[in-house]
């Protein structure tokens, strides 16, 4: 029967039998016309043979007539394009699908410190028998020599697939045709990868050649679901998945896909690669100033990330100078920005001023694998910032700022109210009855000058203030509707201010209702710690955008050379630039701020003193501490947005002054970037060139790639030593984020689907857990009968007639 099928060009499918066969004519010539032609030809052939004059009997004459008619009939039939339609039915074995996780998370190295985890590596590497039991009483002494300590997950997969004792690929192929796939962001056939030379390569070699573990996202659930859609034929008998279970790109939950597998009777067999004892506990930042005051109660927020830790308690500690000063325990939970506030009070030692190292630490209690530390150098002082606040009359800004200064234990504040009650001013500290003498003025660290008339100060006192700033004192000027800066146009303080202005008179207009506005942080302002209203850059920006609106400001005309705007008006312009509301520059060794509004007290609405106090406290410390400590910083370093994210380049900025505190004019500065988490043999230092920013004297910028996660320190040696510590963090759910194998998730999905979960010690029985399954199928074939059998039949009929004619002595 097979030779007949070959003659008529039928390719019978394997595991199937013929169910039915039929004939169909595909010619446009009608069959009835062919029948008429056949009848006419048959009558003609009969008439011709009846008139043959040869001597032969009727039987022979009839045979020749039939043979001639049959050959002509066969020819007519072939001209009608006959097609044989054969339908086969049968049952073929369903295949086994093997899915390999090809994402970057498979390059992670798990910490395998327990005997159980290490013996699993030995099983994968074929150093012990594949059925070696993994029990709780194992010891490290039972681990074979040569077992890799902490192999990456992809290496474990390769070892398993090439394990001579496991013979996993052959075992799976014995349960049904084996189809192997890779998945990361999408599912694809592993043996269909381009660029792989498959000459003399086994099927396993094909797969391992394509297995790179380099995809940036993982869609585990979506990959299984795509396989269930059956785009490549029948559903598999089972799906075997080798993965760490981390999924950060799927649109469908894994449990829903597992339930669909159960409905379709396609069990999932999950091999969990890696160790479940994994996760991340990482300090992001410590909210601590550079200078601490003795006997001042500090609340230090410690921010960290936690992922992959399921239970337990996190202990956060602060150590100052090697001595633990604060400790707090919090329940472990997952999050990208967790925080705990630790409180301590630095106690005075023998020295009035000390430099120490503050170390913040976090750890998972009972598990030393999860711990992290972050260090900050701090200076402790026993002196308070001496502030002189001079105001014309007790406006709202003065009232709230006065109470803030008096409550701050780090500040020694004195107040001079020009139009205040005489009896109160004579009552003694904190009030001054008159402007202090020059030597006493120079004993202050910071002067806050309110809406005071220039005539009150006079040329001499304004000259003192100018000299005070020039020698390193800080000056904050708060604009007012009456005198400052309108009356200071040609005074000794004019050149001290960071802005240029014209005199403006503000008339009360009861019929005009001003529109509120919310100040906007400038690009420079976003990098200044002085303006941070939260511990993280994004949170601080969010708070600034949500502050209550202000209504009034003093318009300025120009920034002085070297001055920068820190806060700007959201809509009004100063020429082509936004109208500055808070501007800063250095005059001599001292820093000067010009605040163009007296309404920061409005920020207290609904939140009390939280943002108002933080803002003014940071302003006072930044401008007053350099004079208190006797060394103003000539180099200020800041990171764009205050944080660094792996894979997202950002800039580092430097504001640099020369020895006379004038903006530096060099075209570029050389800095060193040190990778503090570099391993032995890695290049830990690279040179960074800071380029001058056009149009911003003293400002420099360099682009940082952030191509390696971990801790870094940027160091600048000239014109003054300065450094910036920062950490490059992985974005949420990144492939390289340390996290353990998701055993619970994989085990639950396998159970829901009707399959099993496997560690290395279970793989020897994986193949036998898969039950072979068949799939019913039908296949239809259409064969045009222009084939060797038809030709043979035609030639046979013609030859037979010719032979009979020869025996009848006919030509």
Please write out the topology.
Blueprint: H1 2-7, E1 16-25, H2 31-50, H3 58-79, E2 82-93, E3 96-101, H4 115-124, H5 153-161, H6 168-173, E4 178-183, E5 187-189, H7 203-210, H8 220-228, E6 238-243, H9 254-263, E7 268-272, E8 280-286, E9 291-293, E10 298-307, E11 313-320, E12 323-331, E13 335-344, E14 353-364, E15 367-381, E16 385-391, H10 396-407, E17 411-417, H11 422-425, H12 438-441, E18 446-449, H13 454-470, E19 474-478, E20 499-500, E21 520-521, H14 537-545, E22 558-559, E23 564-574, E24 577-587, E25 590-595, H15 610-629, E26 635-639, E27 644-645, E28 650-656, E29 668-675, E30 685-692, E31 699-704, E32 710-716, E33 722-729, H16 743-753, E34 756-758, E35 774-784, H17 788-807
Parallel strand pairs: 3-4, 3-6, 6-7, 7-34, 9-15, 16-17, 16-18, 18-19, 19-25, 27-33
Antiparallel strand pairs: 1-2, 2-35, 4-5, 8-10, 10-13, 11-12, 11-14, 14-15, 20-22, 21-23, 23-24, 24-25, 26-28, 28-31, 29-30, 29-32, 30-31, 32-33
Helix pairs in contact: 2-3, 3-17, 8-9, 9-16
């Amino acid at each position: 029967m097979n030779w007949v099928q070959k003659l008529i060009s039928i390719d019978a499918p394997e595991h199937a039998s013929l169910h039915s066969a039929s004939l169909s004519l595909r010619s446009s010539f009608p069959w009835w016309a062919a029948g008429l032609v056949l009848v006419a030809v048959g009558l003609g052939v009969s008439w011709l043979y009846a008139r043959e004059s040869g001597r032969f009997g009727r039987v022979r004459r009839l045979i020749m007539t039939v043979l001639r008619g049959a050959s002509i009939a066969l020819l007519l039939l072939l001209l009608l394009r006959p097609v044989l339609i054969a339908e086969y039915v049968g049952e073929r074995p369903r295949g086994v699908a093997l899915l390999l996780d090809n994402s970057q998370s498979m390059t992670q190295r798990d910490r395998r410190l327990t005997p159980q985890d290490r013996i699993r590596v030995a099983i994968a590497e074929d150093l012990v028998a594949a059925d070696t039991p993994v029990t709780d009483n194992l010891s490290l002494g039972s681990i074979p020599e040569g077992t890799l300590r902490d192999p990456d997950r992809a290496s474990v997969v390769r070892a398993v697939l090439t394990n001579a004792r496991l013979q996993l690929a052959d075992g799976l192929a014995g349960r049904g045709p084996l189809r192997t796939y890779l998945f990361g962001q999408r599912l694809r056939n592993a043996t269909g990868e381009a660029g792989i030379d498959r000459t003399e390569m086994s099927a396993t070699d094909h797969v391992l050649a394509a297995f790179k573990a380099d995809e940036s996202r993982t869609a585990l659930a979506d990959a299984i679901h795509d396989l269930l859609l059956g785009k490549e034929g029948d559903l598999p008998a089972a799906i075997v998945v080798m993965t760490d279970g981390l999924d950060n790109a799927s649109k469908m939950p894994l449990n829903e896909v597992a339930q669909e597998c159960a409905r379709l009777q396609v069990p999932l067999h999950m091999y969990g690669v890696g160790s479940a004892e994994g996760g991340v506990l990482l300090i992001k930042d410590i909210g601590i100033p550079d200078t601490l005051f003795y006997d001042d109660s500090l609340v230090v927020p410690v921010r960290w990330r936690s992922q992959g830790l399921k239970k337990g308690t996190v202990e956060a500690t602060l150590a100052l100078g090697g001595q633990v000063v604060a400790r707090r325990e919090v329940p472990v939970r997952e999050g990208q920005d967790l925080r705990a506030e630790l409180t301590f009070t630095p106690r005075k030692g023998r020295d009035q001023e000390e430099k120490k190292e503050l170390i913040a630490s976090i750890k998972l209690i009972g598990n030393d694998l999860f711990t992290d530390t972050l260090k900050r150098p701090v200076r402790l002082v026993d002196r308070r910032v001496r502030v002189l606040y001079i105001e014309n009359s007790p406006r709202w800004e003065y009232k709230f700022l006065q109470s803030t200064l008096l409550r701050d234990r780090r500040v020694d504040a004195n107040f001079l109210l020009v139009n205040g009650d005489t009896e109160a001013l004579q009552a003694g500290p904190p009030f001054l009855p008159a402007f202090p003498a020059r030597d006493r003025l120079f004993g202050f660290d910071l002067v806050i000058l309110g809406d005071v008339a220039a005539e009150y100060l006079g040329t001499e006192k304004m000259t003192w203030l100018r000299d005070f700033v020039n020698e390193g004192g800080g000056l904050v000027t708060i604009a007012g509707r009456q005198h400052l800066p309108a009356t200071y146009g040609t005074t000794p303080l004019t050149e001290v201010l960071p802005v240029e202005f014209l005199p403006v008179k503000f008339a009360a207009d009861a019929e005009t209702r001003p529109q509120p506005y919310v100040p906007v942080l400038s690009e420079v302002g976003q990098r200044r710690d002085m303006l941070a209203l939260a511990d993280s850059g994004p949170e601080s920006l969010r708070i600034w955008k949500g502050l209550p609106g202000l209504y009034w400001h003093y318009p300025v005309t120009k920034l002085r050379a070297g001055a920068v705007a820190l806060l700007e008006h959201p809509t009004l312009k100063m020429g082509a630039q936004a109208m500055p509301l808070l501007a800063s520059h250095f005059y001599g060794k001292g820093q000067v701020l010009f605040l163009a509004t007296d309404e920061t007290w409005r920020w207290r609405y609904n939140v009390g003193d939280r943002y108002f106090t933080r803002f003014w406290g940071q302003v006072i410390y930044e401008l007053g501490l350099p004079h208190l400590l006797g060394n103003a910083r000539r180099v200020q370093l800041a990171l764009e947005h205050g944080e660094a994210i792996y894979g997202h380049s950002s800039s580092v900025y430097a504001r640099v002054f020369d020895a006379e505190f004038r903006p530096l004019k060099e075209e570029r500065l050389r800095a060193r970037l040190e990778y503090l988490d570099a391993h032995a043999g890695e290049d830990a230092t690279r040179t960074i060139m800071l380029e001058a920013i056009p149009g911003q004297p003293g400002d420099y910028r360099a682009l940082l790639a952030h191509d390696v996660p971990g801790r870094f320190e940027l160091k600048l040696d000239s014109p003054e030593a300065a450094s910036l510590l920062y950490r490059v963090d992985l974005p949420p759910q990144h492939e390289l984020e340390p996290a353990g194998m998701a055993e619970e998730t994989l085990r639950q999905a396998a159970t829901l689907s009707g399959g099993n979960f496997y560690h290395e010690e279970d793989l020897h029985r994986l193949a036998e857990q898969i039950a072979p399954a068949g799939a019913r199928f039908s296949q239809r074939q259409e064969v045009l009968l222009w084939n060797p059998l038809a030709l043979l039949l035609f030639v046979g009929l013609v030859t037979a007639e010719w032979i009979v004619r020869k025996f009848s002595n006919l030509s």
